[in-house]
Structure formats: C-alpha cells, structure tokens
Design brief:
The chain is α+β, with helices and mostly antiparallel strands. The protein has 3 helices and 2 strands; from the N terminus they run αααββ. The protein has a two-stranded antiparallel sheet with strand order 1-2.
Amino acid sequence: MNDIQADIRAELYRVLEGLGAHPYLLATIGLWSEGNEAEVLKLLRSWNDGTFRIAHITGTGEAPGRPKPKLHLVR
C-alpha cells in the first residue's frame, strides 16, 4: 500500500468515526488498513446484506484511551 492509500484509509476511518459509525464497521476499516482486502470486501458485503457476524472485538492498544477495535471473525 502506498502512502496516499494509507492516508485515504485513515481519513475514511476518521470520517466514519465522526459520523458515529458502528465500532464493528470501524474494525472492518481497520482490517483493511492491514492489507486484508479480500476479507474486507467479504465483510462489507455482509454488512450490506445484513449477515455481518463476529465472535468478539478487543482493542489493539494502539491509541491510549481509545483503542481501535480489532475483529475476531466467526467462520
């Protein structure tokens, strides 16, 4: 991923967070930042068709006081 792509993904995350996006959706965007594009596309499609499911979410510890959620997917 190049710098501009990373910046776009970070800004997208911030926009969605500012709009009050569900933490699970933010976690999906965070997963995209890690380069898991096929998995993210699958998750986004499941968000849109109403079948999105996860086992649990934990913080990554990246941001003190406000950790980004981390997905633990149900297979």
